[in-house]
Hints:
alpha+beta, Immunoglobulin-like, 6-stranded mixed sheet, rod-shaped, 1 helix, 4-stranded antiparallel sheet
Amino acid sequence: MKAHQTQQAVKATLLVTLTALTLACGYTAKKTTPPVAGSVPTVAALSPASMTAGSSAFTLTVNGTNFGSQAVVNWNGAARATSFVSGNQVTAAIPAADLATAGSAAVTVTNPGTPGTGLYGSGGTLAETSSPMSFTIN
């Protein structure tokens, strides 16, 4: 009978020890910080502001504010090859196909989001896009 009581005492001790270790590890669900708003660019002027339908490819200069070093110019929502000049200026290669027919194009600038660097990838910033400015194709 004594051996049976000892065996139960050992089992109880092991159970208490495992429970204590599990709780002592401090395991909780991983808490992450959501991304915060990024820097919103603004478009103040386009150069040139218009082209003739059927024109050849050209470089569009976009002047404004808050352009990040990875900013992208969008032409009717489609990203175009973009070069960063400064926080106030970017340029974009506009292909001839974008000038094929008369009309207008909405030009925006997007500052991409940045990934989180905190524990479990938390934090970072959201991508932000400017209000559109109209480019005229005559």
